[in-house]
Design goal:
Organism: Pseudonocardia dioxanivorans (strain ATCC 55486 / DSM 44775 / JCM 13855 / CB1190)
Radius of gyration: 23 Å
Keywords: DNA-binding, Transcription, Transcription regulation
Number of helices: 7
CATH superfamily of the domain at 18-93: Winged helix-like DNA-binding domain superfamily/Winged helix DNA-binding domain
GO molecular function: DNA binding
Protein name: Transcriptional regulator, HxlR family
Helix content: 40-55%
Strand content: 5-15%
Strand order of the largest sheet: 1-2
InterPro entries: HTH_HxlR, WH-like_DNA-bd_sf, WH_DNA-bd_sf
Structural class: mainly alpha
Length: about 190
């Protein structure tokens, strides 16, 4: 604990899980909302501050962090007095699918009167419905149709409490058991 009696925020940057690492980087509402606002085209400190009504010291810290990790780039747009804007980098633009997934989930589970914001695909003239699709077959993917597997970046020396391999194996075994029992069906006696 710190001198103020506050619990220090845990870090997840060394966990063998990209979701944990993203949560470590973007795990507070201000940070995600800043990336959202940057995706909407806001670039200047005052625009972010006005949009979110965020305390200036908090905004400075979050913008600095987003620049440090590479989601935003700080560019001077005025020399005297010096003024900077914050623009999305390629890494920041690659967060767009995550934002749209959050938007879709929020519309479905947290909205009562329909979507407060829609995302319109200009080339085809329609609103998008975010979904995960298989890059090979193009079909939408459901959680029950996937297996989580250890990837090429999985470290060899993972502390036992962080090791995901047993969890993945148990999930596959449970899916296999459900698949067998659902496909077995009732036995039918043959007429002989």
């Amino acid at each position: 604990m710190s001198r103020l009696g506050l619990v220090k925020r845990p870090t997840f940057d060394d966990w063998p899980c990209s979701v944990a690492r993203v949560a470590d980087v973007l795990g507070d509402p201000w940070t995600i909302l800043l990336v959202r606002d940057a995706s909407h085209g806001l670039t200047r400190f005052e625009e972010f501050q006005r949009s979110l009504n965020i305390p200036r010291n908090t905004l400075s810290a979050r913008l600095r962090r987003l620049v440090e990790i590479g989601l935003l780039e700080r560019r001077l747009y005025q020399d005297y007095p010096p003024r900077a804007e914050y623009v999305l980098t390629d890494m920041g633009r690659d967060f767009f699918p995550v934002l749209t997934a959050m938007l879709g989930w929020g519309d479905r589970w947290l909205g009562e009167d329909g979507a407060p914001v829609s995302v319109h695909h200009v080339p085809c003239g329609h609103d998008i419905d975010p979904q995960v699709v298989c890059r090979s077959c193009g079909r939408p993917v459901d959680l029950d149709e996937v297996e989580f597997r250890v990837g090429p970046g999985y470290p060899d020396d993972v502390p036992e409490h962080l090791d995901l391999r047993d969890r993945f194996a148990r999930r596959v075994a449970a899916q296999d058991a459900r698949g067998r029992s659902a496909s077995d069906g009732p036995e039918v006696a043959s007429a002989g």
